[in-house]
Amino acid sequence: MNKRLYIGLLFGILFLNFFDCLTTVIVLGKGIAYETNALMAYAYDKSPYLFVFVKTFIVLFGSLWLFKGIERKSAKFGIWLIFLIYTGIVIYEFYHLLRLSGLVA
User: Fold this and answer.
1) How far does CA 13 lie from the centroid of its chain?
2) Where are the chain's structural domains?
């Protein structure tokens, strides 16, 4: 597969991370969920802005690292794996946001 596809998937990962960040800050702010990742829980406790910065930095750094090795099979596999996992997370979060809003039973 061509390099442009993987670059698109990396941008997709960044977009999905943004949505995940946004929904996480919303539910944490409302007190209806808690962060299970100790580093991210610490960052959120300090500031929601720090949480967003740390999460974005980690995903951006990881994406750049995968892009650097984009010609390797392991990087391509990692890109697909992370994209699919993030897609599942975002679908799960979106469903629960709809449920909380009363739009889905």
Assistant:
1) 7
2) 3-101
